């Protein structure tokens, strides 16, 4: 039996020479690590790391009604954006469940780039196209677009050596278009998914391998390392940045997932899911995403049931772990858990069931890490 | 290429077995296994006195990313456990064949050893994937 061929990014041919261990990640053949997840994690926290995130999807929305259309799709308020500014948002179903979380880049008054999760590209594009209204065009430019992310405290100084554009002028969640980086035209955005300062660079697929090599060569003396999805996951986890499919999903609203800051219920125009989210907010969210630390021995992992500490054998779980690992920065066994709101206060004693055994745990403050 | 120790025995689940005497063996996971798993951050081993059964789960190891079962390559009674791994599981990554040993078993069925692979057979097994 022939499995469906795995998709590859334009950087795939370079992985092997950098020592990558490649895994199947939601249908993509991607590097989970180059050296070691823990080493890459610490490198991003203390120096800088370079990630290939070309699997992410990009959708261009253009036309006289582009702004109004994007406004009707997303939970955040696109009218607050100036050109060259970006925002984080969710797209919701009418019941408030989450279609995807995304970044919206305002490239011009009539031009918006939506950056979506790789595993959701087909679903999102169908969703966007089927809700298109007014004079707009929707184009899936995912294959033509590659994305590299350089993240960490040294990201700016390393990248600055490759461009004449003054990167210190690009503020957090702003970007510059058509920046010349080592002779390659890039959209340079001060954003990321690691909890560190850094940049995301959008370039044509053809230019990606050359840019990858140039950044690594330039950063070598500073200790910049190529980093894989394993470190990306532990970094985003410590910073409590949600991962679709774990913290977010069709059955989880952005309010439950703790990204209410990206939900603007007071914005004038309707958006899909607004009514359901207003109702949920008024009634109080039934579940909340909390940080959990294990006190007993064990590591919380995605899907493990969470119980109230006084719960008996017959009692139902109060929720479940959405993500968990041993935090490389804090060396603690931590999880994010989606649990009933009445248990969400910090210092609430809980139990996490690990392979049939209940292990003592407690809710803790999250994010676990802030720079 | 991952290392093997000549003269030892190996399971298809990537455990090594060092025969200490006619009735005792020491068990750990192979260099290939630790390399596949990546940085190990947690180990759960059976306790001294516990019975283990060949090809059945005897505990687990966890990397940053995932949990993997440990399968016992032999049947018998656990007589020693490397308790240092509880605090320093990374020793398995750095020293799979020595400091990374996991348990010593008083084996109940020496015939099971003939089911295991030689170093050469294991090296071929790993290559064949």
From TrEMBL, chain A:
Start and end residues of each Aminomethyltransferase C-terminal domain: 287-370
Cross-referenced Pfam families: GCV_T (PF01571), GCV_T_C (PF08669)
Gene Ontology MF: a single term: methyltransferase activity
Source species, domain of life: Bacteria
Entry keyword set: Aminotransferase, Methyltransferase, Transferase
GCVT N-terminal domain ranges (all copies): 11-267
Record's catalysed reaction(s): N(6)-[(R)-S(8)-aminomethyldihydrolipoyl]-L-lysyl-[protein] + (6S)-5,6,7,8-tetrahydrofolate = N(6)-[(R)-dihydrolipoyl]-L-lysyl-[protein] + (6R)-5,10-methylene-5,6,7,8-tetrahydrofolate + NH4(+)
Gene Ontology cellular component annotations, sorted alphabetically: cytosol; glycine cleavage complex
InterPro entries, sorted: GcvT, GcvT/YgfZ/DmdA, GcvT/YgfZ_C, GcvT_bac, GcvT_C, GCVT_N, TrmE/GcvT-like
List of residues binding substrate: 200
GO biological process, one term: glycine decarboxylation via glycine cleavage system
Leading EC class: transferase
E.C. code: 2.1.2.10
Family affiliation: Belongs to the GcvT family.
Role, per record: The glycine cleavage system catalyzes the degradation of glycine.
Subunit structure: The glycine cleavage system is composed of four proteins: P, T, L and H.
Name of the protein this chain belongs to: Aminomethyltransferase
TrEMBL record, chain B:
GO cellular component: a single term: glycine cleavage complex
Residues annotated as domain Lipoyl-binding: 24-106
Pfam family, one: GCV_H
Cofactor: how bound: Binds 1 lipoyl cofactor covalently.
Keyword Amino-acid biosynthesis: no
Family membership noted in the UniProt record: Belongs to the GcvH family.
Protein name stated in the entry: Glycine cleavage system H protein
Species in which this protein is naturally found: Brevibacillus parabrevis
């Amino acid at each position: 039996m022939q499995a469906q061929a795995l998709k590859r990014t334009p950087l795939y041919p370079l992985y092997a020479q950098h020592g990558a261990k490649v895994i199947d990640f939601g249908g993509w053949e991607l590097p989970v690590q180059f050296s070691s997840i823990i080493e890459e994690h610490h490198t991003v926290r203390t120096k800088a790391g370079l990630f290939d995130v070309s699997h992410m999807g990009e959708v261009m929305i253009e036309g006289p009604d582009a702004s109004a259309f994007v406004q009707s799709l997303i939970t955040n308020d696109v009218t607050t954006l100036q050109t060259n500014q970006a925002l984080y948002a969710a797209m919701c179903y009418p019941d408030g469940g989450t279609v995807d979380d995304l970044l919206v880049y305002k490239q011009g008054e009539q031009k918006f780039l939506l950056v979506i999760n790789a595993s959701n590209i087909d679903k999102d594009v169908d969703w966007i196209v089927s809700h298109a209204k007014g004079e707009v065009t929707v184009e899936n430019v995912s294959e033509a677009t590659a994305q590299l992310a350089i993240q960490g405290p040294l990201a700016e100084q390393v990248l600055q050596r490759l461009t004449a554009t003054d990167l210190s002028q690009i503020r957090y969640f702003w970007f510059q278009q058509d920046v010349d980086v080592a002779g390659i035209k890039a959209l340079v955005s001060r954003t990321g998914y690691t909890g560190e300062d850094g940049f995301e660079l959008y370039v044509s697929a053809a230019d990606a391998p050359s840019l990858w090599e140039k950044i690594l060569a330039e950063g070598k003396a500073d200790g910049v390392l190529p980093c894989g999805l394993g470190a990306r996951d532990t970094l985003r986890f410590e910073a409590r940045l949600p991962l679709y499919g774990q913290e977010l999903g069709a059955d989880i609203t952005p309010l439950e997932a703790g990204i209410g800051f990206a939900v603007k219920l007071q914005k004038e125009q309707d958006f899909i899911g607004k009514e359901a989210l207003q109702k949920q907010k008024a009634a109080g969210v039934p579940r909340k995403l909390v940080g959990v630390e294990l006190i007993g021995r064990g590591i919380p992992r995605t899907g493990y049931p969470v119980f109230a500490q006084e719960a008996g054998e017959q009692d139902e779980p109060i929720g479940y772990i959405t993500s968990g690992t041993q935090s490389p920065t804090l060396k603690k066994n931590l999880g994010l858990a989606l649990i009933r709101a009445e248990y969400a206060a910090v210092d609430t004693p809980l139990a996490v069931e690990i392979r049939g055994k209940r292990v003592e745990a407690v809710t803790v403050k999250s994010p676990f890490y802030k720079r | 290429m991952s290392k093997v120790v000549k003269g030892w025995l190996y399971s298809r689940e990537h455990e090594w077995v060092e025969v200490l005497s006619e009735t005792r063996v020491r068990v750990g996971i192979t260099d290939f296994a630790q390399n596949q798993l990546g940085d190990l951050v947690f180990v759960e081993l059976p306790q001294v006195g516990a019975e283990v059964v060949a090809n059945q789960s005897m505990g687990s190891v966890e990397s940053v990313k995932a949990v993997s079962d440990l399968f016992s390559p032999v049947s018998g009674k656990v007589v020693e456990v490397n308790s240092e791994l509880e605090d320093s599981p990374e020793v398995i990554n750095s020293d799979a064949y020595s400091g990374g040993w996991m348990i010593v078993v008083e084996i109940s069925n020496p015939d099971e050893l003939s089911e295991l692979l030689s170093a050469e057979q294991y090296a071929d097994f790993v290559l064949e994937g």
